[in-house]
Specification:
The protein has three helices and 14 strands. Strand 10 and strand 11 form a beta hairpin. The longest helix is centred in the first third of the chain and has 19 residues.
Length: 254
């Protein structure tokens, strides 16, 4: 199998080429930066509990329909934890949205090996801690019913079975945003369409499983006429694990 570093560079290069091909001159000039950080009471990913109180920064850059995003999560254990290495995650994503079609293609490197594990730049297929994931998302072109559906599949990296073969673990998520008075809401339904790797979700899964039923509410707390702090609360249920979570968070951004 080819070296994972080469795979990563090739795939991201293809996405970048698509972006350049589809973007017009006016769009190329429209550059955007995204800088923000979330402070959350607990980190729950796709319905699965990851760790406790965490800070999650985001750094993003966009040109037209093309976007590069670095997202991270670090808990408050620092360099020590009763369960071993403290939680630390770094995700890098390249995505392209095809105009007004509602279609977005993405490629991501997900790394959650933990503080002190090092070897971040090891991309060898059977040694790397990176999970390389491709995603395809589509939002219905209906103003009154903006339902979106996304499919994510891990195509390379650490998502291996006991035989050393790729699991191709996948996750599907539907999201429906709406508002009630001054509160922005989002309803989520996420599920594993077929058997997924134990190393990804932490539990054996024999087939289809609903793992993420959630309702998120967001509201801005006005500080001054020009500055407000968004806060959010999210109720999450995982039928597969018979588990539930209630998460509170604060978003800080310019």
């Amino acid at each position: 199998m080819k070296d994972m570093n080469r795979v990563k560079v090739t795939v991201i290069g293809v996405i970048a080429a698509l972006a350049v091909n589809f973007m017009g001159v006016d769009k190329v000039q429209a550059q955007e930066f995204k800088i923000q950080g979330d402070l959350i009471s607990s980190y729950v990913w796709r319905g699965f509990y990851q760790t406790g109180v965490s800070f999650q920064p985001t750094l993003g850059f966009g040109i037209g329909g093309f976007a590069l995003t670095a997202w991270g999560s670090t808990d408050f254990d620092g360099t020590s934890s009763s369960d071993g290495e403290a939680a630390k995650e770094i995700d890098l994503t390249a995505a392209y949205t095809f105009g007004d079609s509602g279609l977005t293609l993405s490629v991501a490197s997900l790394w959650w090996a933990g503080q002190g594990s090092n070897k971040y730049f090891n991309f060898k297929s059977h040694e790397t801690a990176h999970h390389f994931e491709a995603g395809l998302a589509y939002t219905l072109p209906l103003e009154k019913f903006p339902l979106s559906i996304a499919w994510y599949t891990m195509f390379a990296g650490a998502d291996k079975n006991e035989k050393g073969e790729q699991n191709y673990s996948s996750y599907v998520e539907l999201n429906y945003p709406f508002s009630i008075k001054s509160v922005d809401l989002n309803a989520t339904c996420g599920f594993l369409p077929y058997e997924a790797g134990v190393g990804v979700y932490g539990v054996p899964n024999s087939g289809f499983a609903v793992t993420n039923l959630a309702l998120k509410a967001t509201k801005d707390i006005k500080v001054t006429d020009k500055f407000a702090i968004p806060i959010f609360a999210q109720a999450i249920w995982n039928p597969r694990m018979e588990d539930a979570h209630l998460v509170f968070g604060i978003t800080l951004k310019p």
